[in-house]
Amino acid sequence: METALTKLVGVRHPVVQTGMGWVAGPRLVSASANAGALGVLASATMTVEELRCAVREVKSRTDAPFGVNLRADAGDARDRVRIIIEEGVRVASFALAPSRALIAELKDAGVVVIPSVGARRHAEKVAAWGADAVIVQGGEGGGHTGEVATTVLLPQVVDAVGIPVVAAGGFFDGRGLVAALAYGAAGVAMGTRFLLTSDSTVPDPVKAQYLAATVKDVTVTTAVDGLPHRMLRTDLVDSLEGAGRTRSFARSVRRAAAFRKLSGLTWPQMIRDGLALKHGRDLSWSQALLAANTPMLLRASMVEGRTDLGVMASGQVAGVIEDLPSCAELVERVMTEAERVLHELCAAGVRASR
User: Fold this and answer.
1) One domain, residues 106 and 248
2) Contact in structure between 300 and 310 (CB atoms under 8 Å)
3) pLDDT tens for each residue of 276-330
């Protein structure tokens, strides 16, 4: 199925595996790429050197195009951009809108730039700055999210920009892909659906909790880092929501110290990142610290399997996912169903015209 996305990045299918911290590592990304989707490596939870090693590992596992996701506001963003360019990575995606200069640097090196956005005005901004495509995530999506549903936000963005738009938030099967195409999207991006595959390195007991969740078990909270964050509701989430300011701040400092040691960042770098996160947002310092060390809460669950100590970012689709296929099986299933649905729609149209 050829779309503007497949032509732009060179993949076989208009499907993107999103860059989820601690989840989208070399194994998942290479499996997604080999399945014909665009696998995206999550770099925010890696040191700069770990990122280079991870990129090279993906390249050793696949010849297919893949991408790297990074935070545009990170203090070492340019170092990470340099690795993307030097290692010949096909796509750079961003969790926050990159600057005009960063987009130009990547494009001059032949890298396709695809920022993720959650509002029409942000899509218009990055398109004007030269982004090649944009991923637009509706409120159904996991992790940091907005209030507008994909079915409302997607057509707004499609009508507003002249570059390919990839739909994210609420997608897990071929029917969703066809629906996104009908809205004018060039493909779909899926996070939770790829997290729940056999190629994902998330511990099996954690996957089991996702599979057991209903749609009502997926909530949006600001208690983790002060920003709307969609995740599975757990006892930890309940305790964070009920904690007082002093207790939250103490927890934030402890987790920030652990993340600093793990990431190799210095305290000044973390403070700068915290200031960047606070900029334009009504965050307390405790919330800014939590935002800076939210990766530690995710790591506890996604790597160590300690759901009692960590959080589990999740899209609402977790409530309707029931199995753990391989990436190859998942992508084939999505595309087969999409082709069938398109055929049935065309046949229905022919019958209606008679």
Assistant:
1) no
2) yes
3) 655 555 666 666 666 666 777 898 899 999 998 889 999 999 999 999 999 999 9
> Residue 306: which H helix or E strand, with range?
none
CATH number of the domain encompassing residue 93: 3.20.20.70
Longest dimension (CA), the chain: 71
Residue 61, both tokens: 């596992």
Please give the distance of CA 147 from its chain centroid, rounded to a whole number: 17
Q: Read off φ and ψ for residue 285, nearest 5 degrees.
A: -65, -35
Q: Residue 95: pLDDT band by 50, 70, 90 thresholds?
A: confident
Same domain, 240 and 158: no
Question: Residue 15 CB: number of other CB atoms within 10 A?
Answer: 31
Determine the Cα–Cα distance for residues 194 and 203; give it in Å rounded to an integer.
Answer: 14
pLDDT at 27 over 60: yes
Does one domain contain both 172 and 266? no
Rounded to two decimals, the pTM is: 0.90
- CB neighbour list of residue 230: distance below 8 Å, 6 or more residues apart: 139, 140, 141, 142, 143, 144, 145, 218, 219, 220, 313, 314, 315, 316
Domain count, the chain: 2
> pLDDT averaged over the chain?
90
148 and 51, same domain (yes or no): yes
Domain span including residue 284:
204-316
